Amino acid sequence: FTWQPFGYLRMQYIAVQNHPNVQFVGRDDGFELQHARIGARGQLGERAAFVISIDGAVDERAQNTPQGKLRVGLRDAYADFKIYQQVAVRGGYFQTWVDPHGLVADTARQFIDKPIETRGMRSTEGWYTPGLPPGRSLGAALRLDPPRANQLGFELAVQNGADEFASNNDNDKPAVPAALLARFPSEGFLVVG
Q1: Is the dihedral of CA 109, 159, 161, 69 positive or negative?
Q2: Which of 90, 116, 112 is nearest to 34 (CA)?
Q3: N or C: which end of the chain has fewer CB within 10 A?
Q4: 3-state secondary structure string across the chain
Q5: Cα 138 from Cα 143, distance rounded (Å)
Q6: Averaged pLDDT for residues 87-107
Q7: Across residues 140-165, what is the average pLDDT?
Q8: How far apart are the first and last CA of the chain?
């Protein structure tokens, strides 16, 4: 059994032009704590691995209001079990491959924030709109993560499909995302989901 702790802290400064007719747009310019993440990665031989992490910079905010509060929240809590060569079963609280920007680590992105289609529109930037990807959810997946460039992988998951911060399923229906992934040289990839 081996494990390795990790963590990082990221801040950003937000400045949005005030809207003359909408009270909440542009009313919270200033510094923002984007990530205050700590966690651990571990392995049990070659057959099992896990990741668990929490973040102290989760923005808890009602829709269309400038007032927000920081809270601590779970970001990842999953285990992978190899069943045949590189094919593994993942179980726990994780993010699927539906969103290609989700595959780029927070500390490796060229810009500090994710694109609007991924992160959505915050209520202080305009009218609140959630991002397109489903976010993290509880469930299980059969997956092959290609370890090197010029290889293909896949993921077939069954998850609750509820809100990212929900503790269970809120509509009794599972979400079933599927994706194919092609890795290219120089950290490039193509996802079809």
Answers
A1: negative
A2: 112
A3: N
A4: CEEEEEEEEEEEEECCCCCCCCCCCCCCCEEEEEEEEEEEEEEECCCEEEEEEEEEEEEEECCCCCCEEEEEEEEEEEEEEEEECCEEEEEEEEECCCCHHHHCCCCCCCCCCCCHHHHEECCCCCCCEECCCCCEEEEEEEEECCCCCCEEEEEEEEECCCCCCCCCCCCCCCECCEEEEEECCCCCEEEEC
A5: 16
A6: 87
A7: 89
A8: 34
Phi and psi for 175 in degrees, rounded to 5? -100, 135
pLDDT digits (tens, 9 = 90+) for 46-85: 899 999 999 998 887 767 776 778 889 999 999 999 999 8
> Percentage of the chain with pLDDT > 90?
37
- Side chain identity at residue 40, one-letter code: A
Distance CA 184, CA 169 (A): 36
One-letter amino acid for residue 191 of the chain: V
pTM: 0.84
